[in-house]
Amino acid sequence: MRKLFATLAAATALAVFAAEPLAAALPVGAKAPDFSTSGARAGKPFKLHLKAELAKGPVVLYFFPKAFTSGCTAEAHAFSESIADFKKAGAEVIGMSADDLPTLEDFSVKECRSAFPVATATPAVQQAYKVAWAEHPGITTRTSYVIDRAGKVVMVHDDLDFSKHVAMTLAAVRALK
After folding, report:
1. Can you tell me whether residue 105 is helix, strand or coil?
2. Which of 39, 46, 89, 145 is exposed most, by the fewest CB atoms within 10 A?
3. Which residue numbers in the chain have pLDDT < 50?
4. How many domains is the chain built from?
């Protein structure tokens, strides 16, 4: 019975996500809005400042709807399995959601496998990156950005299906070299 309810809840969540139009993402060529927020890396809290991360190299900023949901967990696993390839290409991967810090601390260990940080997408960050779902406060769209060292958006993938986000962002990072 518990499995049935979990399956129904997941199906309902997917139906809600699919029924809502996604926000228009920032266009390629746009200046990535700078921000500071709280996040977690391997379960430990830290302060994230995009400008400081970009000083080290390109950044993959991927927004996901909700920690510990099936698609977001699968996406986090996929990014963690490819993290060595991103590092080899000189890029930092940062997951972003509207979840609170304690949830992200747990998610960073269990689902991101301590391979990369996740941070809270505040309402201001959601609005700046055009990933807020007005009808569902507390949930962002599934949108991935590749931002070069100069702070320019060089790739955008805005799709609720998580399956292509890793491959597309990795290809874009590799193309920067």
Report:
1. helix
2. 46
3. 1-22
4. 1
72 is catalytic: yes
The CATH number for 106's domain is 3.40.30.10
pLDDT at 136: 83
Q: Is residue 89 part of a domain?
A: yes
Q: How far is CA 57 from the centre of its chain?
A: 18
**Alpha carbon distance 39, 96 (integer Å):** 9
- pLDDT 10s digits, 123-149: 999 999 999 987 788 899 999 999 999
Three-class DSSP labels, 125-165? HHHHCCCECCCCCCCECCEEEEECCCCEEEEEEECCCHHHH
Domain encompassing residue 85: 22-175
Residue 149 belongs to a domain:
yes
Q: Which of 72, 83, 89, 94 is catalytic?
A: 72
